[in-house]
Amino acid sequence: MSQIPSIPSLAAQPKTFIENQLVLIREGLRDVPAMKGSLDGVSDAELVALATYFSAQVAPPAAKGRVDKASLERGRELAKSALCGTCHLPQYQGRDQVPRLASQQEQFLLDVMKEYRDKPGPGRDTVMAAALYGINDAQLKDLAHFFAHTR
Fold it and tell me: Does 7 fall in a domain?
């Protein structure tokens, strides 16, 4: 469970999602500077063991701190109209290759949604780039606030 706003929590992420991300990072197909070199030489079996461990952990609690009720409601409505629950499931817990959004770090969510929208590079899901097309920064902030405060 990350305590760093720009780093995601891995606890309760779907196993397949974690496996895929670890492989992409290890193979250099997804650039995560904080992870650079840390997976060099790690076998597939070890990656599966890591994914199994992290996916079995209890999900982090919803974000602490002040809830902006207006932002939360705008985020809830936007998530509904953008059909985020179709892939991420209605409670935003993720499944298979689709990550958990609920109770994730708010700053991380905002940063990664901007990255998907503005510069989806290697190792990024192009479906998300299309899903976020036309959503402005203020709306992304509302979405991040909503997901972070959703359990």
Answer: no
